[in-house]
Design goal:
Helix content: 10-25%
Distance between the termini: 146 Å
Number of helices: 14
Shape: extended
Length: about 1450
């Protein structure tokens, strides 16, 4: 390490190099000796120091131990952190084969040799020594291993104890050694280190000005190390930015501790010390590259208002882009670094830097600078931000004060200062009110009862130790201003206590303070020194002094005394407690009186002698209002700004700054240019109106108030300033003869904001490469970019330079040209064209212009060739634009690739050939600039043809230059040019063939704004037609003259014009005679819609003829006619009469819709009609065949529907139906004939509903055969249907029948056979197309139906022939005992069934008592001759054959007569 040599000596310019070498040599010698020892010291060290391993990291043995020496082996095994983890057992030499390398036979043979015996005797003694050494080594190893094992067990026991008793060992971090502060020179390295204890191991973080240090973000700048509880921060190559307070924080689960150290970086005298610190320059050693920083998408001059939020941002492009490297972004206001706060938010997104001003105040006004710092340097961008006052809460109130600060804070007072606002509201400011608010509350208290004019005020009545914020309000006779932005919080306490509280954490102030020696003990302090009055107003006086040289061991305090001038009575001001700080403010002094002041020191030893008294100080405002500034000079700057400079106020004390105001000439309205005072005597006033003339005035401000205004400046027009042009370039020789040369050059890239008025050419002779003195070639400026320099000497060499001039002056000369030889050209081909110009650049085309060569060659020039290539292409890429030479001196180059950059050159040709190419143009990108406009041709209402061009980028000096075929138009007999603002117009006076050509317009003082228009023969013809239409216009019609009928049969003739003015006139003509408004004709013209109409009440035979409307509107005319004769007229007249009659019919009750019918989905016929104009007494009478069938009276509606419903229509409902409406206003009749065809049509519609309601045809089976059927919603006996089989009508027979059951229509096929297979259909006849339903009875459908038929047939047969009990048996028989019972029932079945009788479910047989008979196979009888009680029970008859079984049941109840009597 370099710790043995102080780092501030290593790079000190006076450091003794020899001393450093001597010390380094001694240090190296020390390390060499320790290295030689370390190789064999491991075992011995274990004996004296336990298991600690000594090592010297960072030193290489080959450098420190140049003498080769065998080192004793170490048998301890260590890990990477030099901690012992075990031991290593070496391999010892032995007599076995694997050690000696020989077999037993070979070893015996060797031993038998004489040589071997001699050597054995010779080295026996050495072998015994070797064996003794091996034994001692084994003993040492065993002892070492045992010791290692023991220590390992002890260590494991300790670790176990720690884990079992962890809480007892935990303690918070503690700094054993704290980092110390350093003062270093720039470019030196500094290392801060500390030692920290704690359990668990603390986590250590380093901070710079409370911002965590991350070495990754600043590669190579910081190096952090932590080893064995020693933590260090190394700062590499300190610069001025590294001056800061550094904090190291140690934290674990038990707590956190911090320690502080300050680093002060000093500069050698003479180095640059700017307000904005300079960053490091040069490539980054870590990356080996240099960053290039570009700031784009910049914010401009911005204007805001108090209370608003404003964001300023720029996009930052850094090349090359490294993912993990981020630049340092800094924002400054007026060269003061901004830090994040509640007023300013700084954001960096990785490619865009943004500063957000959350709540604008006038304090935020100023020049904002973005500085992007990389390791390679920095880039900055600045723009001004203006903040206007918010609207006053009271009209006429002044603006809010600004920049409220606390100048002097003590335990019982705080002096508050502020700056006066620029706006007084139109009335002088009477004074200011100061408000205070204790931090942590929202309660504002006004500190002064009456306004104070002085911009400083001592606030008293504070509570010691509490913090306060302040604000100020201005007041005039109109009212109170808004409050200012609040000040920073400040505590009311003694300054000495405040300094002690800050301790080492106080930020570095930029001063290196040298502490004094320790004061001696028990000494009365001496006199204070340099007592003076630093500030005096009518409200307070501030004294300051220096502490005495002799203070004693204890700290000193002070007593302040005052004395009225002319008396010897000294009064102590602070009688209660002495003050601790060497600064004191006195209040309650009598205004106008003069005082002396003095100070005494005191400590525990006593009160010292007083200081020398001050000079007489009169209580009052010592500060005077500054004098008015001097002459104000405005200077043009940009299109919206003016630079204003002025003479400073003379003898101004404590000047705060200046306010500048501007006014449009002769307006009388003054507006502030800045709302925050500026201290310089030059200011750029932004936000002015281009083209307006302004005057300016300035006034100064200090704490006493604002000065009078300066004299008003001379007026200045707001437009871009002009300057002399830049030098021309590209000087070339266009022609050379024996004693003269023609030069050409290119226009300067910057013309200075004004037209170039001419050029001056200088030349000098070059002899043997040594240039001579410059000589003027022309005294009068030349306007062309070509000039012949005469009076040269043949075969001499010359250089040339050119200067451009404008109204601002002559610019600097160009660089000297190449050296040209003055000799006559004799070549046959022409020289190079010159003065190439680019016009009308678009995304796919441009226009190239040039001037012909000065040197024609042997023959005149007869054409030109244009070459093109991409700007970055090699010379071989030149290609021709035109294959045939063009005679004109311009060409439009098309088919360019948008975005590509091109260069051009031109070659001239004559009969001898093609000459030398011109100079290459500047690279031109093929892009259409935003806002580019083209020439537009217009024809006005008078038929005047004009070309119009508009440019949005004009400046006050811009001019529109019109050209024909790219030659400026100077002769104006055929054209009239008019220009106004940013628009220009070329008017053709008498358009003709002489005007055919290409017209172009170029706008000067723009970025090449130009356009052209080709005025061809076809275009001329088209425009002349449009011009004629405009001169002799026709009123366009939306519709020609038409006729329509209105109510009452009135006739309306009308047309509609597209547009007519209120002055338009119409003539109405019938058969060449003008008709006018009267009883027969009613005319109307709606000017808004353009509708023209004429209405006639009715038509008579005399109205047959031609109707014409003639229109005239200014110069425009038109007419439209309508011919009404013959059948056309008669049809119109007939329709008119009908409409007239209809109108009168509808005056009473009438039919809106006449009687008709409709069929409902339920096939119900409804006769209905719609009636209107109905009253309560209107009646409606329904009749059929002249017989009334219904009467509707007292109708409850004005307009409605009358209905008559026929539920189930039949033929008897045929007839003529009639409805009559009548009341006292008249009657109306409607008739509907439902006979013959009418009734047939009605039924067909009914049939159509029935057919549409039919279901799909389905198949079912019966015991007789197969049945096809469909259902309808309603069936009518008149419905005609047709059944078809295989598309043929079916001939019905006993086997195939059809019928209707309810709403089911069916077709029965009895005993079907395969012949009955096929497609079946039922067709409903509705008099129209009808409706047909089909079903396919074949295949599986037939098989399934036939099988079902067979099953049903068999079931029917069985049902028919099964045994049955037909009847005759009662349910219950009650009979008296002794009577005879005879019951008979009918039996059926085929074959004849078997009969069985049962009593109580047991079979009985016939006997004498019970006789059972079955006769003729039909009749079964049951007879009991004399019943008794035993015959009571349930009896059943059971009949059975092969088709089934059936039973009949009855109950017999026998009673005894006596029992019956008793029951009665």
């Amino acid at each position: 390490m370099s710790g043995s040599i102080p780092f501030y000596q290593k790079h000190h310019r006076h450091y003794d190099r020899g001393y450093r070498s001597t010390e380094a040599e001694a240090k190296m010698s020390h390390y060499k000796s320790s290295s030689r020892y370390s190789a064999g010291s491991s075992i011995s060290s274990t004996r004296t120091r336990g298991l600690n391993v000594s090592s010297h990291s960072g030193l290489e043995e080959i450098k420190l131990s140049p003498v080769p020496k065998r080192s004793k082996p170490s048998y301890l095994a260590v890990d990477k952190e030099n901690q012992i983890i075990g031991y290593v057992v070496p391999i010892f030499r032995g007599s076995q084969e694997f050690t000696s390398g020989m077999s037993d036979t070979e070893e015996t043979r060797v031993r038998e040799t004489a040589g071997y015996m001699a050597r054995r005797n010779l080295f026996t003694k050495g072998l015994e020594m070797e064996r003794s050494e091996v034994i001692s080594r084994k003993e040492a190893m065993r002892e070492s291993a045992e010791r290692i094992s023991l220590n390992k067990r002890i260590h494991e026991h300790e670790e176990h104890f720690k884990r079992m008793n962890e809480d007892s060992l935990m303690h918070p971090p503690e700094f054993v050694i704290k980092p110390r502060s350093h003062t270093v020179w720039e470019k030196q390295c500094v290392r801060l280190h500390c030692t920290v204890s704690g359990w668990p191991d603390p986590r250590v973080i380093w901070y710079k000005n409370n911002v965590a240090i991350d070495p990754i973000t600043s590669p190579g700048k910081y190096k952090l190390e932590s080893r064995y509880n020693v933590h260090s921060l190394e700062i590499n190559k300190c610069d001025f930015d590294d001056t800061a307070q550094y904090r190291v924080s140690a934290m674990n689960s038990q707590g956190e501790q911090s320690a502080f150290a300050s680093v002060v970086v000093k500069r050698f005298k003479g180095e640059v010390d700017e307000a904005l610190p300079l960053p490091r320059h040069g490539p980054i050693s870590e990356y080996g590259i240099t960053f290039q920083t570009h700031i784009v998408d910049k914010f401009g001059v911005s204007f805001g208002r108090e209370g608003e939020t404003m964001s300023l941002g720029c996009t930052v492009i850094i090349y090359p882009a490294l993912h993990r490297y981020q630049p340092e972004i800094q924002w400054y206001r007026d060269d003061v670094l901004l830090t994040p706060s509640k007023w300013t938010h700084v954001h960096w997104s990785g490619d865009r830097a943004t500063l957000t001003l959350t709540h604008l105040n006038k304090e935020d006004e100023g020049l904002y600078t973005l500085r992007v710092i990389t390791k390679s340097g920095y880039e900055t961008y600045s723009a001004y931000v203006f903040v206007r006052d918010a609207d006053a809460e009271v009209e006429g109130a002044p603006g809010a004060p600004l920049d409220v600060r606390c100048l002097d804070a003590n335990k019982d007072y705080i002096i508050v200062s502020w700056k006066q606002p620029a706006i007084d509201g139109g009335n002088p400011i009477v004074g200011y009110f100061v408000d205070r608010c204790e931090v942590g509350t929202n309660h504002w208290v006004q500190c002064n009862d009456t306004p104070v004019k002085f911009a400083r005020f001592p606030v008293t009545g504070l509570v010691e130790g509490r913090s306060y914020i302040f604000r100020v309000r201005a007041v005039n006779k109109s009212g109170m201003s808004r409050p200012s932005r609040v000040s920073e919080p400040v505590a009311a306490m003694d300054p000495a206590d405040r300094l002690r509280m800050r301790g080492t954490s106080a930020p570095w102030t930029g001063q290196i303070i040298v502490t004094e020696e320790e004061p001696s003990e028990s000494v009365v302090p001496g006199r204070p020194l340099d007592l003076q009055v630093t500030e005096a107003t009518k409200n307070y006086v501030v004294l300051s002094w220096k502490p005495p040289g002799e203070k004693g061991l204890e700290g000193v305090m002070y007593y302040v005394e005052k004395c009225v001038v002319g008396t010897d009575s000294w009064q102590r001001v602070n009688t209660e407690l002495p003050v601790k700080s060497p600064r004191f403010a006195l209040f309650d002094l009598a205004e106008g009186k003069s005082y002396h002041f003095r100070v005494r020191c005191c400590n525990a030893a006593g009160v010292g002698e007083p200081s020398e008294p001050t000079e007489a100080t009169t209580v009052g405002d010592k500060l005077d209002i500054p004098s008015a500034p001097g002459k104000v000079v405005p200077t043009r700057n940009t299109d919206t700004s003016v630079v204003v400079s002025w003479e400073a106020s003379s003898d101004a004390k404590e000047l705060v700054g200046y306010y500048i105001e501007a006014s449009i000439l002769d307006s009388g309205v003054w507006e502030p240019c800045n709302n925050k005072p500026v201290k310089a005597t030059r200011f750029v006033c932004h936000g002015l109106v281009t083209g307006e003339q302004y005057v300016f005035r300035v006034r100064a401000v200090n704490a006493a108030g604002l000065s009078q205004f300066s004299p008003v400046s001379e007026p200045v027009e707001v437009k871009a300033a002009i300057a002399s042009p830049a030098p021309p370039y590209g000087i070339s020789v266009l022609e050379c003869v024996r004693d003269s040369m023609v030069l050409g050059w290119k226009q300067p890239t910057f013309i200075g904001g004004a037209d170039i008025t001419g050029y001056f050419v200088d030349y000098r002779e070059v002899i043997d490469g040594v240039p001579g003195k410059w000589h003027e070639a022309n005294i009068k400026a030349v306007s062309e970019r070509a000039y012949r320099v005469s009076d040269l000497q043949e075969n001499k060499k010359y250089q040339f330079q050119v200067r451009a001039a404008n109204m601002a002056g002559v610019g600097i000369p160009s660089l000297p040209s190449e050296t040209f030889l003055c000799e006559e050209w004799t070549i046959a081909v022409p020289g190079p064209p010159h003065d190439l110009q680019i016009r009308e650049v678009r995304g796919d085309s441009l226009v190239l212009l040039w001037k012909p060569p000065v040197y024609q060659g042997r023959d005149p020039v007869n054409g030109f060739y244009v070459d093109i290539k991409e700007a970055d292409a090699p010379e071989e890429a030149w290609r021709g634009v035109n294959t045939k030479a063009v005679e004109k001196q311009f060409i439009k180059i098309k088919n360019l690739k948008e975005g590509e950059t091109y260069v051009f050159r031109v070659r001239a040709q004559n009969k001898a050939g093609v000459g030398k190419a011109s100079d290459v143009t500047e690279p031109i990108p093929a892009l259409t600039k935003p806002g580019t406009k083209e020439i537009v041709v217009e024809v006005d209402d008078e038929g005047v043809i004009s070309l119009n061009f508009e440019c949005c980028d004009t400046t006050p000096d811009s001019k529109f230059v019109w050209s024909k075929n790219y030659e400026e138009i100077t002769e104006s007999s055929r054209l009239t040019i008019e220009t106004k603002a940013n628009k220009s117009k070329t008017i053709f006076n008498t358009p003709g063939e002489e005007d055919i050509g290409i017209y172009s317009c170029l706008v000067t003082h723009t970025d090449g704004a130009s356009s052209s228009y080709t005025f061809s023969t076809e275009e001329l013809k088209r425009l002349l037609e449009i011009s004629h239409d405009h001169k002799f216009p026709i009123i366009p019609l939306k519709s020609e003259l038409a006729v329509e009928l209105l109510e009452k049969g009135r006739v309306r003739f009308w047309l509609q014009a597209e547009q007519m003015t209120a002055n338009g006139k119409i003539d109405y003509v019938f058969n060449d005679n003008v008709v006018s408004q009267g009883e027969k004709y009613k005319m109307n013209f709606d000017k808004n819609s353009g509708v023209i109409e004429m209405v006639m009440e009715s038509l008579t035979p005399g109205d047959e003829g031609t109707y014409t409307f003639q229109l005239k509107d200014g110069k425009a005319t038109n007419q439209s006619s309508l011919v009404l004769i013959g059948d056309v007229f008669k049809q119109l007249q007939k329709e008119s009469e009908f409409q007239r009659k209809e109108y009168f019919r509808k005056q009473g009750p009438h039919f809106i819709e006449y009687l008709g019918y409709e069929v409902s989905p339920e096939c119900c016929v409804v006769l209905k009609c719609k009636v209107g104009n109905i009253k309560k007494d209107t009646s409606a009478l329904w009749s059929k065949d002249k017989h009334q069938i219904k009467a509707d009276e007292q109708l409850g509606f004005t307009e409605g529907v009358l209905k008559l419903e026929i539920a189930q229509i039949s033929k008897k409902d045929s007839g003529v139906y009639e409805v009559v409406l009548k009341d006292d206003r008249g009657q109306d009749t409607s008739t509907l004939s439902l006979v013959d065809q009418g009734f047939k049509d009605l039924m067909n519609e009914v049939f159509s509903y029935i057919a549409n309601s039919s279901t799909p045809l389905k198949i079912t089976s019966t015991d007789e055969g197969i049945r096809l059927y469909t259902f309808v919603s309603y069936y009518n006996d008149l419905l005609q249907v047709t059944w078809q089989h295989k598309d043929s009508a079916i001939a019905f027979s006993d086997r195939i029948k059809s019928g209707v059951v309810g709403e089911q229509l069916w077709l029965q096929i009895t005993d079907p056979t395969e012949k009955d297979m096929g497609k079946y259909a039922i067709e409903f006849n509705d008099g129209k197309g009808g409706l047909r339903r089909t079903v396919e009875l074949s295949g599986q459908a037939f098989d399934d139906a036939f099988a079902e038929f067979q099953r049903l047939k068999a079931a029917a047969t069985a049902e028919r022939n099964r045994a049955r009990v037909a009847g005759g048996l009662p349910d219950v028989v009650t009979i008296q005992e002794g009577k005879a019972l005879n019951l008979t029932c009918n039996i059926s079945g085929n074959p004849v069934p078997e009969v069985t009788w049962l009593k109580n479910d047991r079979e009985i047989t016939s006997d004498e008592h019970c006789i059972l008979k079955f006769e003729s196979g039909k009749f079964a009888s049951f007879t009991i001759t004399a019943v008794n009680t035993s015959d009571s029970g349930k009896y059943s008859i059971l009949v059975k054959n092969k088709y089934g079984t059936e039973s009949g049941d009855f109950t017999v109840s026998v009673f005894i007569p006596e029992e019956a009597g008793k029951k009665k």
